[in-house]
Design goal:
Largest sheet: 4 strands, mixed
Strand content: 25-35%
Strand order of the largest sheet: 1-4-3-2
Distance between the termini: 24 Å
Radius of gyration: 15 Å
Structural class: alpha/beta
Shape: globular
Number of strands: 8
Length: about 120
């Protein structure tokens, strides 16, 4: 083993705003907040994801090779319809062509990063 995952770093125009979205989506809490970056931790206090300010941020576009997705997160859920209603209420957007009834659906967060809601059938 070379190492272990420490955190996922996500570029964004406003770390506070995007961290708020993922705090609710993933049941995480703030470990650090400097204004230029926000670190979210899990219940055990382990750093999980860091959002860093990028002034010239260019959002990825789903299926556009000129602006590729750069990263994404899979979120395991038990019911896609229930989870979809919750992420849409947080500001996510369902992406075209991802309206599958079971398995997975693809969304983008409030600044355009794609993420998937998946069920065990889709894993």
């Amino acid at each position: 083993m070379i190492g272990h995952l420490y955190t996922v770093v996500i570029d964004c125009p406003d770390p506070d705003e995007l961290a708020g979205f993922y705090e609710k989506l993933l049941s995480l809490s703030r470990q650090a907040d400097t204004g230029d970056y926000v670190v979210l931790q899990n219940a055990a206090g382990t750093s999980v994801v860091l959002f860093q300010r990028v002034d010239d941020f260019r959002a990825p576009r789903w299926t556009d090779s000129a602006r590729p997705q750069q990263m994404h997160i899979d979120v395991m859920v038990t019911d896609l319809d229930t989870a979809e209603a919750q992420v849409l209420a947080l500001g996510a957007t369902l992406l075209d062509g991802s309206d599958k009834p079971i398995g997975y659906r693809v969304y983008e967060d409030p600044v355009g990063h794609p993420f998937c809601l998946i069920t065990p059938e889709g894993a």
